[in-house]
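Progress against Task 2.4 (sequence-to-structure conversion) is shown through the following example record, which the project officer requested during the mid-term review.
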Amino acid sequence: MARRAFLGALAGAFLGAAAARAAYAAFTRRPPIGDAETWDRTNHRGEPITLLEGPAFVAGAGAAAAVLPGLPVRVRAAVLTAVAGSGALGAYDDLYGATSSKGFKGHLSALAKGEVTSGAVKILGIGVTGLAAAALTSRGPVDTAVNGALVAGGANLANLFDLRPGRAIKVGLLTGAPLLAAGLWRDAPVPAALAALPIGAAVALLPEDLGERAMLGDAGANALGALLGLAASVALGRPGRLAVLGTVVALTAASEKVSFTKFIAGNPVLNRIDLLGRRPVEQAPGN
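Structure tokens generated for the chain above:
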């Protein structure tokens, strides 16, 4: 029966959503580091916005994974490793990162010249935590390498979409939905729960994102992508994982040459999805 997978997915989504909302409420009262101004930034409109949505996603997803019933010990440890590692490294870049070097290529080029940027620290660190998470759920070195690349690549790619309200979360939902459907179809409770957990946490925070009151930042986007990469590594066979990894690599490479924002704006279907739920350009906050 598909009932087991459905119940696992329902628990993952519910716990992820509830924990993320609770964490956001707590962090807006008392931020995890510094004060509220430490997390304040200016968005694409030139308006103030907070990055506390990111730590809320990380804390919420981590807390939900810690108590989600039915997860094997190694899978639970992999989830906590992926979300904590990518989230902490993303928060480091959010708070202390410099913008002199941009993109995957830019950070690695700076590293080759002896300049250790915060972005390079994040890229290398997420690679290590991705492999660590993958090692807990993989069979053999080849699977570990592929799955580790999925986790790390997913973390990096999700962050590349976090440039407009709701975009990274929408991409996460479009990515997570097929993984969730696959788990439900196969009546596989663990893959279904792993896909549903970040979906639930992301949906719970989507109103803040679309309302332009908060954004995921590197912390939240990295954690969202890492969890979806881990879910893919558990849910798919090797051909499927290689296909997803190839897509991640291709999109990451394309981002060095093409602006995702311009590409999306030029495609009527993608642009409609991108604008769904967002306030018009001329509308001020609260109106």
